Amino acid sequence: MLRECPLCQRERKATTFKPLYGQDVCKKCYYAFANRRQLAFVIDVFLIRVLSFAVPTLIFSVVTVDQSNIDFYEGVITLLVLGITYVLILLKDGMGGASPGKMVTGVQVIDETSRAAGNWLQSLKRNLPVLIPIVPLIIAVQLQKGHRWGDGWSNTKVIWKKYRDHPVFTGEPLGVPEGIGDDYQRPGDLAGGDNSNPFAPPVR
Ligand SMILES: [Zn+2]
What we know:
Blueprint: E1 2-4, E2 11-13, E3 18-20, E4 23-25, H1 27-62, H2 70-91, H3 100-105, E5 107-111, H4 120-127, H5 135-142, H6 151-154, E6 156-160, H7 167-170
Antiparallel strand pairs: 1-2, 3-4, 5-6
Helix pairs in contact: 1-2
Bound molecules: zinc ion.
Zinc ion binds at residues 5, 7-8, 10, 25-26, 28-29.
């Protein structure tokens, strides 16, 4: 059975749909958005790596190193590389909600409530978990569904800029998808139901 994807509006096999922010979208859109976010991260990590090594290299091209004290300088360099890496990871989404990687791939961090671009504090909060080893790998899978660790605490979500006002990203109800049938009900349609949570799964 075919069903129209709410994002790309193409008819796709209904069985391949997957939930993004609680709304079913076609597999192509689902992975296209996730891949943009993953690629953004790879770009950012690459840039941060380059910068974190470039800064100490620059400093020590000017500062004369006392060769008898080489261990000390190595320690300083290690600290600098780590420090710069951590600070840049924490602050990467602070400027207009988009790190360089996110700018390139067309995604953006916004405030879940106000829908304004994410700020520096939100960037810091949502990227704290990223500093924990292995967590970036978990997040790479988590983000396919939309929210990831850190989003709850910072009240953020990542949107696909070209679909910025689409219900999938605004959290508004989509209306009854085609092919579901007349008995389709959203949670709030049930007697005494509560439709305040746009991420609740549809009740059929
Ligand atoms: Zn689609």
